[in-house]
Amino acid sequence: AFNLMAAPIVAKLSRGIDSLPDELVGLIFRYTCVEVGMEQAIWLSHVSRDFRRIALSEVELWTTLHSRARPEEIETYVSRSRQADLHVVVNITPDDYNEDLIPFFTSCFALASRLKSFSITAELDDREFLSNLALSNELTDLDTGELVFPRLEELSILHYKKKGWGMHSDNFAFGDFSPSWGAPALRTIRCRDYIP
């Protein structure tokens, strides 16, 4: 009797994730990519044919462009995001140089018409006086004309300083940063230790 009652449950559980509808698996994928990071979308698309099919159908998995990504990863994300809005995340550390970030910014600025949010976070140590990096107009105004972001709604510029010798007002990470971008849809500007 017990085996008869348990048989449908065991059959369903033995199929594991295959028993879940694609929409639910896609939702799990989206949550996982937010929590774990952008590489997760690529990893999920390499697990199985079903996972690949679901991952490729979930456009939201491919809409965040990260400054740590390799150029070929950026190309993959852009093509898989179709025409969806894109979100740019730039993380700057004391080991970064402007020259290292220029290719990433160039790729992102080529997609200016699709960018919805742009987040720049500098995580620096106050004890180091950085001559290698200043997020400057040279870096953010790479083109000769005015750059326009018609969909850009949110700009975040965050400067985190490790506690060491105390806080001071020097903005090593942002130098003379005052981009001449056009952003008619801009609604939110978030800043920390930076005054635009």
Q: Give the overall silhouette.
A: elongated
Portion in strands: 15-25%
How are the strands of the biggest sheet laid out side by side? 1-2-3-4-5
**Main β-sheet description:** 5 strands, parallel
Helix fraction, binned, reads: 25-40%
Helix/strand-derived category reads alpha/beta
Q: What is the number of helical segments per DSSP (H or I, 4+ residues)?
A: 7
pLDDT < 50 runs, ≥5 residues:
none
Quick take:
This protein has 196 residues and is α/β, with parallel strands linked by helices.
How would you describe this structure to a colleague?
There is one protein chain. The protein has helices at residues 2-14, 22-36, 39-44, 49-57, 71-80, 98-110, 137-140; strands spanning 64-66, 86-92, 115-125, 154-162, 188-192. It is α/β, with parallel strands linked by helices and 196 residues long. A five-stranded parallel β-sheet has the order 1-2-3-4-5. Strand 1, helix 5 (71-80) and strand 2 (86-92) form a beta-alpha-beta unit. The chain starts with a helix and ends with a strand. The mean pLDDT is 78.
Layout of secondary structure:
Blueprint: H1 2-14, H2 22-36, H3 39-44, H4 49-57, E1 64-66, H5 71-80, E2 86-92, H6 98-110, E3 115-125, H7 137-140, E4 154-162, E5 188-192
Parallel strand pairs: 1-2, 2-3, 3-4, 4-5
Keywords:
single chain; 196 residues; alpha/beta; five-stranded parallel sheet; 7 helices; 36% helix; 18% strand
